[in-house]
Design a protein that fits this description.
Layout (H helix, E strand, L loop, with lengths): L1 E5 L4 H13 L4 E8 L9 H8 L3 E6 L1 H15 L10 H20 L3 E3 L8 H12 L4 E3 L10 H10 L13 E4 L4 E4 L12 H4 L14 E8 L2 E5 L2 E2 L2 H14 L4 E7 L5 E7 L1 H17 L2 H19 L6 H13 L5 E8 L2 E8 L7 H4 L11 H9 L1 H14 L1
Parallel strand pairs: 1-2, 1-4, 2-3, 4-5
Antiparallel strand pairs: 6-7, 7-12, 8-9, 8-13, 9-10, 11-12, 13-14
Helix pairs in contact: 1-6, 4-5, 8-9, 10-11
Length: 401
């Protein structure tokens, strides 16, 4: 039997390799690490996977695709889950699963295995993608079948087999990192009453309290809702994310402590760092406020809610998501311009926005009467707009008599 494993080099997937060989008749394990911006986490990964028992490993750099085809459409849609979570883990899973499927088909594998727990969202995100792209492939989810009950037992399992444990017990937070964010779950964070230990927890930046006492300005230029320049400099998508993550991290931007509603029905608590993403969302929204008309803005709010739900629940490869993306792309045709922001101790503050497609008209908006607007016109508008209220009040007054 040949099994393709979604491999991160972390505790869960390190345990899964020997466990699969023990429970699937010494199956051939092909480890696949899809690099969506884990950074140094991929260092030495090939050696670790082989030591654990994998026959080979793929390390696939999809960072550019991740930003262009997944992150940017999400930003254009302004998708935010429960008003706080910028979907950092959620948006990466469909791409990772897609690459797993491609390699599984190439290798002639019998199954794809993932290390997502039976309580989490990721099992849904991985498996819905696999079902959408390769319905005949089997799926193995060890956390739903094995006897291991905790991360402590995982560490014990590796120790008994004489295999290297890829983390210290006291730092065994469950983390997920990519170009967009890093999440932290587990240990003391499992109790929402505990304040996060930011000094030791954070990886992408500092807390707002430790940020500089001086503001930092950044200017972002967009074309059709896509960032293309930072402070006047043309940069690649990866360079843009690196730049914004650096600026945001230094200024304590994008730290979210959230108790969220998982797809499986329970609540979970996590701390998310999304420094560059938080800046990008703020800039994009400022530009949309300038360039989108009232009706489009209103309906886009409805669309973004559903778009967010689809990303969070792993329904990326669905007809509805594709249809909503087509709508979002249409709205972005005139979202072109430059946004200036001020970063200060965890805050992203608007500092000016301009666009050739701006719908803001100073003559109309001014308190000074101009040729384009007559104050007298408002009287007739209000009479018609308020007519239902007036009629209702008249009827109520009449029935009271």
């Amino acid at each position: 039997m040949k099994i393709v494993l979604a491999y991160s080099g972390g505790l869960d997937t390190s345990v899964i390799i020997p466990w699969l060989k023990d429970n699937y008749d010494n199956a051939e394990i092909i480890a696949v690490c899809v690099d969506v911006g884990q950074g140094h986490e991929t260092d030495g990964m090939e050696e670790k996977a082989i030591k654990m028992g994998a026959s080979k490993i793929y390390i696939e750099d999809v960072r550019d695709e991740f930003i262009r085809e997944y992150i940017y459409p999400m930003v254009q849609a302004d998708a935010v889950y429960e008003d706080k979570y910028l979907l950092g883990t959620s948006i990466a899973r469909p791409l990772i699963a897609k690459r797993l499927v491609e390699i599984a088909l190439k290798e002639g594998a019998d199954a794809i295995c993932h290390g997502a727990t039976g309580k989490g969202n990721d099992q849904i995100r991985f498996e819905l993608t696999i079902k959408a792209l390769a319905p005949d492939l089997s799926i193995i989810a060890p956390w739903r079948t094995w006897d291991i009950q905790s991360r402590e037992e995982e560490i014990e399992y590796l120790t008994k087999k004489g295999l290297e444990v890829p983390m210290k017990k006291e730092d065994s937070y469950s983390r997920d990192r990519n170009l967009w964010h890093i999440s932290h779950e587990g240990l003391d964070l499992e109790d929402p009453a505990n304040e996060p230990k930011f000094d030791s927890l954070l990886k992408m930046g500092v807390s707002p309290m430790a940020a500089p006492d001086k503001e930092t300005y950044v200017e972002i230029e967009f074309e059709k809702g896509i960032p293309v320049k930072i402070d006047g400099e043309n940069l690649s998508p990866i360079e843009i994310m690196d730049k914004l993550n650096d600026l945001g991290g230094k200024n304590g931007i994008g730290i979210t402590d959230l108790v969220e509603n998982r797809v499986v029905g329970m609540k979970s608590r996590g701390v998310y760092e999304t420094p560059g993403g938080t800046i990008l969302y703020a800039a994009h929204r400022d530009l949309e406020y300038l360039c989108l008309d009232k009706q489009t803005t209103s309906f886009k709010e409805i669309v973004r809610t559903k778009y967010t739900e689809l990303i969070y629940s792993g329904e990326w490869f669905t007809p509805l998501r594709e249809a909503l993306t087509a709508f979002v792309e249409k709205t972005q045709e005139k979202v072109t311009g430059t946004v200036k922001l001020k970063l200060y101790k965890g805050n992203v503050i608007s500092a000016g926005v301009k666009s050739d497609y701006s719908l803001y008209n100073a003559e109309l908006a001014s308190f000074t009467t101009g040729e384009l607007y007559s104050h007298k016109d408002a009287e007739g508008f209000i009479n018609l707009f308020g007519l239902p209220l007036k009629v209702r009040a008249m009827i109520e007054n009449k029935t009271k008599k």
